[in-house]
Amino acid sequence: DIFKSIPKPNIQCFTSLIKAYSAVDQLDMASSVLKDIRSAGLKPTVRTYNTLISSFVAKRKLDFATHVFEEMEFDGVKPDTISWNIILNWYASNTKGNSRSRKVEETFEHMIESNVQPNLITYTTLLKAYLAYDDFESGKQLLERMKLDGFSPDTEVYNTFINAYARRKNWTEAYSMYQTMKEEKVPMNLYTYSRVIRALATSNQASRAENVLASMREAGVTPNAVVYVTLLSMYADRGNLQKVLFLLREMQNDHIAADNRVMSSVMHACLRTNNPDLAISLYSKMKSSGISPDVVTCTLLLRAHALKANFEKALELLNIMRKSKHRMQRPEVVAYNSLIELATLHQRGDIALETLVLLMKDKDVRPDRNTMESITHYWPKLHSHSKEVVGGNESEREREREREGEGEGEGE
User: What is this structure's pTM?
Assistant: First the structure.
């Protein structure tokens, strides 16, 4: 309505109209604006075409986007760097497997052949396509090409490398990229620090991870929940309860609310240090603070009670999990395995057997290798203990019969 009220709309008005139609998913109407532009005696600009191409790409209609891209030449409009980047980004984000990097490379080469100069976004898009499938060699070659073409790699370029190395748990390369950023004074953001810390923590590089955390604070960047959970998980796996509790306090000082991931890490550290009472206490505090427990925290609570040899309570918790209406609280095989293992270790064959029966009845869970190993490894010991108990009882009964026989003889 506003557009119709304009006496003589210019090309910018028509371009805005394309955006408006695209925003409400009326792509046919957006396309028809090109005819309206020509009818008004105007010529679409590269910005007009880029707006329409971007709209089709956003709605995952590459065929239409490609058609509009080719139509630009009909109007004598040469695609610019932005035009090519839109198509490159489509291939980098939506194609799969080796075809992703191949399609991006082909489009990039066509761009160069068309005498359109790439910019930093172009190189970053191509880099993401390489690293999405761990083609680090091509990625490093592209990095050198960027520098030769006069482009200084920015934060996003280095973050792309660091994230790819962190995903592959290659902490040395991730840390090397981080050090290069420091040397070249490339600004770092929260994502940079969190991915480097993840790469280090998952490879048990605790001292380096702490150094990065310290640098992060010095730079005025506050750690988020992801950073804390990464560090908490590392120290929990190492059984360093003191460090876990310290990080929990630091997290509270940074006004970051704890969630299930945080509490599961803390509870895990408690159990690793044989402190089930503290794990149970933390679980209670978690619930009272409004955090809804998930299957991980419920399983850890079950294990805490089992470590205290309170198997009736552990079994009760397992049954509560089984009956829960919340899918995220239903037991997984690890919950059954934990109870079977600890019950057999404590010579509670009745609990182990009942847990195994419950597992076999659970339609959503199947026994795994650990289930079989727990049974085959611990059950012979339990069976041996049972035989000793039974044998002892039989001997006692035999002695009772002998004493009864002797008493009868004396009476006669």
Answer: 0.75
Q: Distance of alpha carbon 240 from its chain centroid, rounded? A: 24
- Any idea which residue has 């020509």 for tokens? 38
Q: How confident is the model at residue 383 (pLDDT cuts 50, 70, 90)?
A: low
Q: How far apart are CA 31 and CA 174, in angstroms?
A: 45
| CA separation for the pair 319, 306 (Å, rounded) | 14
Residues 142, 123: contact at Cβ < 8 Å? yes
Rounded distance between C-alpha atoms, residue 126 and residue 88, angstroms: 8
Is the separation of the CB atoms in 166 and 198 below 8 Å?
A: yes
CA distances from 116 to 49, 85, 108, 228 (A): 16, 11, 10, 45
Mean residue pLDDT of the chain comes to 87
Q: What are the φ and ψ backbone dihedral angles of 395, each rounded to 5 degrees? A: -65, -40
Q: Write phi, then psi, for 117 (nearest 5 degrees).
A: -80, 130
What is the rounded CA–CA span in Å between residue 78 and residue 84? Answer: 11
Q: Rounded CA gap, 330 and 146, in Å?
A: 51
pLDDT tens sequence across 200-220? 999 999 999 999 999 999 999
